[in-house]
Amino acid sequence: MTDDVERAMQQPQGSFFMDDAKGFQAISAKALMKVLEKYEKSDRTSQAENIANGFVSRGDAQNHTEVSTNLKNQTGIDLSAYLRNSPNIVERVNELTVSNIQLIKSIRTQYLDKVQNAVMQAMVQGH
């Protein structure tokens, strides 16, 4: 979304801009708000899930390797197969994935809220 807004801001002949009464280029707040609302309403759940799954999977793989190595060094027993099949670990990885998905979604919402607030303040102030 950031790229779309920034790209539109660089194109003065685009729908984001209009000539005002003073003859200079100004951002059309209505057009910008319309685009922001479109992004706000779009569902990005699958993208957030992919990012979160990748993040948790990489962390899990690194953690599994380190814990397995440490346990083997300390006990002399390879427990890596047990760690992979532990229902407690699987449950915790799933919890972390859900938590990361929610965090990723909240970042998008927070960003859109900040942009919308800035646009509304500019409109109220007559900019």
UniProtKB/TrEMBL annotation:
It comes from the Bacteria. This is Phage Mu protein gp30-like protein. It comes from Haemophilus parainfluenzae. The lineage of its organism: Bacteria, Pseudomonadati, Pseudomonadota, Gammaproteobacteria, Pasteurellales. The gene is traN_1.
